[in-house]
Amino acid sequence: MPRHDAAIAPEEAARAARSDARRRQVLHAAVPLMERSGSPAVSMQAIADEAGVSVGLIYRYFASKQELVQAVTEGVLDDMARMLAETVEPEEDPVRQIAGAFATYCTVIRDSRQAVMLTYRESNTLDEVGRSVVKELEVRTVEPLRSAVDTAVEQGLLRPIHAELFAYDLLTVAHSWALKHWYFAPRMTFEEFLRSQTALLLSTAIHPEHRHRYPDLLGDLA
Amino acid sequence: MPRHDAAIAPEEAARAARSDARRRQVLHAAVPLMERSGSPAVSMQAIADEAGVSVGLIYRYFASKQELVQAVTEGVLDDMARMLAETVEPEEDPVRQIAGAFATYCTVIRDSRQAVMLTYRESNTLDEVGRSVVKELEVRTVEPLRSAVDTAVEQGLLRPIHAELFAYDLLTVAHSWALKHWYFAPRMTFEEFLRSQTALLLSTAIHPEHRHRYPDLLGDLA
Amino acid sequence: MPRHDAAIAPEEAARAARSDARRRQVLHAAVPLMERSGSPAVSMQAIADEAGVSVGLIYRYFASKQELVQAVTEGVLDDMARMLAETVEPEEDPVRQIAGAFATYCTVIRDSRQAVMLTYRESNTLDEVGRSVVKELEVRTVEPLRSAVDTAVEQGLLRPIHAELFAYDLLTVAHSWALKHWYFAPRMTFEEFLRSQTALLLSTAIHPEHRHRYPDLLGDLA
Amino acid sequence: MPRHDAAIAPEEAARAARSDARRRQVLHAAVPLMERSGSPAVSMQAIADEAGVSVGLIYRYFASKQELVQAVTEGVLDDMARMLAETVEPEEDPVRQIAGAFATYCTVIRDSRQAVMLTYRESNTLDEVGRSVVKELEVRTVEPLRSAVDTAVEQGLLRPIHAELFAYDLLTVAHSWALKHWYFAPRMTFEEFLRSQTALLLSTAIHPEHRHRYPDLLGDLA
DNA sequence: AATGAATGAGTGTTCATTCAT
DNA sequence: TATGAATGAACACTCATTCAT
């Protein structure tokens, strides 16, 4: 390998690293602004100010506001996906896997309520491509849940329910802590919400023969 | 009754009627535009063009764009509330009442998918007052469902579940046909969605002793 | 004279009278609004509301807003001219005539401060024709003062001063109670203003030989 | 001094200088337009066109049209104040000081007739703060005149007249060359106006014992 | 004679985007 | 690489004016 290449490669790597850091810097500034006010109400100038860079610089890293919004949305979903991945504890019993994953979802959503709302709100700001990326991310997010449900059904722990439907319902209900927070928050604590929803939804699905195994999950409905 | 009143009243009534017609005309034009693109992306000019009136005229009937957005959102929710009220069939059995209401919800939502998405999206465009109006409307919408659940629990037909939670879950899941349409639609028909969700959610809640009464609702899960 | 004419004439007179009343009604409403805020800030709608008539009606009596502003300005000047004419007391001594007229000017201006300011402000809203009408009115207003000065000079009661200049200075200084009210009002009462200005300006002009005749006018400067 | 400062300071200074130049460029374009037509009749677009910049740019230097109007008015008054300050010649004799200052006022006003009219017209466009700034500027402008009058009275050169009143009358009369230009201009030259007014007003005030000292100022009235 | 609904050009203002430095 | 001055199209909103009733 010629010296030339050897000299350039690290340079390029460094540049790429710096570039990435810049992107993150801008995104980091944009996220809370857009969570609070929605992207149309946030100007590029405001983002630049918040990030401590110039407007022009943002355009070096994002071709347009549209693209920045896209990146923000994806970033938010990515973060949530990462948090989920990091937090889900491995469980032997697939039912407990489901319950654990649901609890994790809810907890992550509790901590990122604004982010969840952002993904719902911005979805129509995005173009077709952007939207499909977001959808894919979401599908990937439910995936572990769905496969756990599948396994549980196969093992006869759950009744023969529609796995995709059930998994998505779990996600939807978890999201509702964010989307309907104004409704739930004055009526119950997050812990109550989590406990009740777990009992409610799992008791649906668990095969009667195996209900006795999960008194802790089913609570009053055991 | 004096002639004065007799002469004035119809005139005013006629004016009020015309005024109302104009409002509706504008709203009628604004709704699909906002459903498609979200209010920030729809200009007053575009609405005026669509309605076939001048921009100035819109401001005779709506003090600001904000107010128009508010009216659009409320109108959409009102329509849905009315459709619900008209369609819910009276049932003796509270469980069947719940199932019927859920089916109605889902059907209305199927027919007003864009409207549902609009209410989620615009909620952050609205001001505090507007938002609370929207919330109230939604609460009023779940109310019949909640009271049916309450009754069913009291009669021992359902397990001792959290009525508000369950009712809201039903609404949330119904909404998901709109919000997650891109996910569900390629995987199942609306009828399958409705049947599966009904079975899934009710099977959760129905007291084991009474499950045998509802084989039609529970399907495979009976 | 044919009966035809005899029948029509009173009708027309009545119509003219009604028409005049309408004009006055509108002007009456417009004057305080324009005095307060300046014509550009007052909408035709606001004037119509204040007058208790419809916008359309105003256009039956005034061809345009411009013309209405013109009429308002002329009306205000006319009123002041009339008040002056009514209040000036006939005096034998031309010097006392001058002093009396000046006092009257000042008093009228004190009571119509806003009107005076309006004439200064609106002068550039008017077109060339309108402006010249206003100027003519003002010239006619100073006229009695100027002729009194002329007479006084001829009779040797005043030094050989420039009559037009002096008369206009008197008007200008009288106006200054309105134009510089923010300056004078905190420093002196209107009576002090009037007394001091009279003494100051007349003492300028009165021929030394005749100063002893007017101790009441000259005060400390006698 | 660290290099850092040495490097930054000039940059910032240069930026400030450019920024100032832009402000002046815009003001320079706005002044004649507003002098001619009054601020409400001048659109931001018109100003931008006149200045050869874009509308948007104006808003980088002036937060609103209001602020621009304010700046124009203050600028005009500032200019006049500066011209006055530069032109007033120091005189030993306070009476000659007064006459000199009056002549300067009149001359400046002759050269800035439109500016004077603008200050009268725009005063009601300004908000309370803006108005008080303008008033303060005017008071500061009369100040030298007022103090000269005070001195002259103390030295017995003038009769015991009200210094503030007299000073303000001098200003008012000087302004009248602008405000009543349509009246004076066809009747006399500026020089005649200045000479006559000086004689008229000073002859008022000069103590009889000292009149003989100022035959040049008093002219025919000596 | 009188209304006021309707118009649409025009306003002040914002902001995504570009580009000379 | 980084800046921020500069652009100008677009926006929400107003209001003098017209005209069908």
UniProtKB/TrEMBL annotation, chains A, B, C, D:
Ranges annotated as DNA-binding: 43-62
The UniProt entry, under Pfam families, shows: TetR_C_24, TetR_N
> What are the GO MF terms of this UniProt record?
DNA-binding transcription factor activity; transcription cis-regulatory region binding
Q: What's the protein here called? A: TetR family transcriptional regulator
InterPro entries xref list: DNA-bd_HTH_TetR-type_CS, Homeodomain-like_sf, HTH-type_TetR-like_transc_reg, HTH_TetR, KstR2_TetR_C, Tet_transcr_reg_TetR-rel_C_sf
Classification via PROSITE patterns: HTH_TETR_1 (PS01081), HTH_TETR_2 (PS50977)
Do the record's keywords include Nucleus?
no
Return the annotated region ranges for Disordered.
Answer: 1-21
Record has Nucleus as a keyword: no
Key words of the record: DNA-binding
HTH tetR-type domain: residues covered = 20-80
